[in-house]
Amino acid sequence: MSSIKMNSCNSNNGESKNGTSNSLSSVNHDLGLYFLELARLGSAKAPTEMEEDEEEAPKELNTINSSGGFLFVATDKLSVKYTSVNLHGHDVGVVQANKPAPVKRLLYYFEIYVKDAGAKGQIAIGFTQESFKMRRQPGWEANSFGYHGDDGFLYRGHGKGEAFGPTYTTGDTVGGGINYASQEFFFTKNGTIVGTVCMVKEIKGPLFPTVAVHSLNEEVHVNFGQKKFAFDLKEYEAQERLKHQMTIEKISLPPNISYGLVRSYLLHYGYEDTLNSFDLASKSTVPPIYIAKENGFDEQDIVYALNQRKTLRQLIRNGEIDAAISKLRDWYPQIVQDCGALLAYERPQESSVGYLLEESQRDVVADTVNAMILSTNPNMKDLQGCLHSYLEKLLRQLTACCLERRSANGDQGEAFHLHRVLNSGKDIKS
């Protein structure tokens, strides 16, 4: 069988004088295809978070795209020295990293160590676009930011600087970073935050870590993470995550909303025994947990056929497919030919969809049957409600909002992973 047809058996049973059965068959066909595709995606090897988030980070300086006439880059491609005598503002020795700053993360950061401030200490650290004029200080031209050592000023896209932080000289370690969550640049000196500045929306495209020297014998060493930073980046990241978590925790929610979400999930998927234990535990709390109807939980649709759905789920999870089919024929003969692709085969284990009988996929089959039974409820107001519980709808909305926010930031910031978000509160509290 080359294509999946959920109503492939005994098609005459699907006919009805009033068309109701045909309508139900169409609904079940769509539900079956939805869960079958879900199973296929689940059976494929999904990329890990690390694989999804992996980007090439800068490791060295780009000796090709630099103002090479005014500086010398050591063979390790991590040290820069100004070897000329500057005569005007276009004699700057500028060099970018070999790769742009990665964007699929919360923070990016690098540091420079000032080995020698040279004649004037006109050293700068910052970020520039690939097309930046390589004979100008970062921050002097559009689409660039720079923190300068001789005056401590911040320059952002034009020649006029603004008071920002202390000057820096020989022996100092200075860092530059991007906070993608807050859309800010931040700079450090000797392991301490100097200040932050908002990223302007006009800056588009990849940003390259950039270093500049501009007077005789100025020399800096660049650290892209190949050795320990002077600044505690992990602690800073933890503080940023805590800040976001505290913002979330300030949001007011209706009383006992989490209880209602969990209960609706157990009802939706037919976990009757767990539901009874859950209700028993909630009654023993002081005071007892109560869910107000105005919180939006309507249990009438998902209480439907609870015991039967529980029984079928247990049979399917135990691999007792014949028993499950027998029960379906007794209870819901109108959906037997539509309840899943497996039912189209005399020997489903040997079929092209036999992978659905693998232990790891049985919940998907059980979910398909569960959704189809819910769809037979004559009082079901929204057939889409057969697919997902309230809890899952909420999590899907959370996912959509996070992706939309990331898109608004030019796809910068951490790639969204639901379980990472769910575990963030636990990690912070521990």
UniProtKB/TrEMBL annotation:
Residue ranges annotated for the CTLH domain, each copy included: 305-343
InterPro entries linked: B30.2/SPRY, B30.2/SPRY_sf, ConA-like_dom_sf, CRA_dom, CTLH_C, Gid1/RanBPM/SPLA_SPRY, LisH, SPRY_dom
Span list, region Disordered: 1-23
Keyword Flavoprotein among record annotations: no
The keyword Electron transport is annotated on this UniProt entry: no
UniProt keyword terms in alphabetical order: Receptor
Domain B30.2/SPRY per the UniProt entry, residue ranges: 39-229
UniProt name for this protein: SPla/RYanodine receptor domain-containing protein isoform 3
